[in-house]
């Protein structure tokens, strides 16, 4: 058990401290691959663009968010992130999946399967059981599909948040929701140099900062150790 984990078990963390804890664990456990980190950088740019488009064109935002931002992010986890024993954290892959606060690979498969089924559902039930105005052309279909994808994104976020209320605590659920919504900005900051490392031939982050207890949130992944 790390000093940080020991601290979390001795007293209740504040909202900000738990947010930092969740981000730290997410980085050190699930983002070892430089390809995955680089894909997260691309995804973060797409998501930040999506946030802007939400106020201008929600339909385009949904399409960009799911097709480019979400898939680029998940491809990194499914295909490039190591699945063996994590020497840096002394944890097996199965253990990391079991303790993941958010959507682990099993839950992600379910969510992406639902997402993949939505175009078929909308095609066979154009009015979505009375919730939508039936489409009459391709543009109408894409518009309704984008609305359905926005609904699915919100439902997925709300479902896991409420689930965490009961599994952990209300604060943990709210912290996780905050983390998810702000991840694009955080990922952009800590993974902006990952493509450079990748071009140099470094496929796996040596995680030296993790070995020395240097939190990217507190030291930009290169500065002084975290105050434990």
Protein architecture, described:
- The protein is an all-alpha fold and 228 residues long.
- The protein has one domain (31-219).
- Helix content is 70%, strand content 0%.
- It is built from eleven helices and no strands.
- It has helices at 3-10, 15-30, 34-53, 58-80, 93-99, 105-124, 138-167, 170-191, 194-199, 208-211, 216-219.
- α2 packs across α8 (170-191).
- The longest helix is centred in the last third of the chain and has 30 residues, at 138-167.
- The protein is globular.
- The model is unreliable at 221-228 (pLDDT under 50).
SSE arrangement:
Elements: H1 3-10, H2 15-30, H3 34-53, H4 58-80, H5 93-99, H6 105-124, H7 138-167, H8 170-191, H9 194-199, H10 208-211, H11 216-219
Task: Summarize this structure as a short list of keywords or feature phrases.
single chain, disordered C terminus, 228 residues
How far is the first residue's CA from the last residue's CA?
13 Å
Task: Note the overall shape.
Answer: globular
Order of helices and strands: HHHHHHHHHHH
Largest sheet: none
Low-confidence stretches: 221-228
- Give the helix/strand class: mainly alpha
Q: Can you give the helix content as a percent range?
A: over 70%
**How many discrete domains?**
1
Number of strands: 0
User: What is the subunit organization of this protein?
Assistant: single chain
Structure annotation, total helices: 11
Computed over alpha carbons, the radius of gyration is: 19 Å
**Strand residue percentage:** under 5%
Average pLDDT reading:
89
């Amino acid at each position: 058990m790390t000093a940080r984990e020991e601290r979390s078990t001795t007293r209740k963390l504040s909202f900000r401290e738990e947010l930092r804890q969740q981000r730290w664990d997410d980085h050190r456990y699930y983002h070892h691959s430089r390809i995955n980190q680089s894909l997260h950088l691309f995804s973060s740019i797409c998501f930040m663009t999506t946030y802007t488009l939400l106020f201008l064109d929600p339909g385009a935002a949904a399409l960009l968010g799911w097709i480019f931002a979400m898939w680029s992010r998940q491809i990194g986890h499914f295909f490039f992130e190591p699945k063996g024993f994590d020497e840096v954290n002394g944890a097996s892959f199965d253990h990391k999946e079991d303790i993941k606060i958010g959507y682990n690979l099993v839950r992600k498969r379910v969510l992406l399967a639902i997402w993949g089924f939505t175009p078929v559902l909308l095609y066979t039930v154009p009015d979505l059981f009375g919730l939508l105005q039936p489409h009459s052309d391709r543009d109408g279909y894409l518009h309704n599909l984008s609305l359905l994808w926005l609904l699915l994104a919100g439902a997925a976020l709300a479902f896991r948040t409420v689930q965490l209320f009961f599994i952990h605590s209300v604060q943990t659920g709210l912290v996780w929701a905050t983390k998810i919504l702000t991840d694009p900005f955080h990922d952009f900051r800590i993974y902006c140099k990952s493509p450079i490392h990748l071009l140099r031939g470094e496929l796996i982050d040596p995680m030296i900062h993790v070995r020395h207890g240097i939190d990217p949130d507190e030291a930009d992944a290169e500065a002084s150790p975290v105050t434990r």
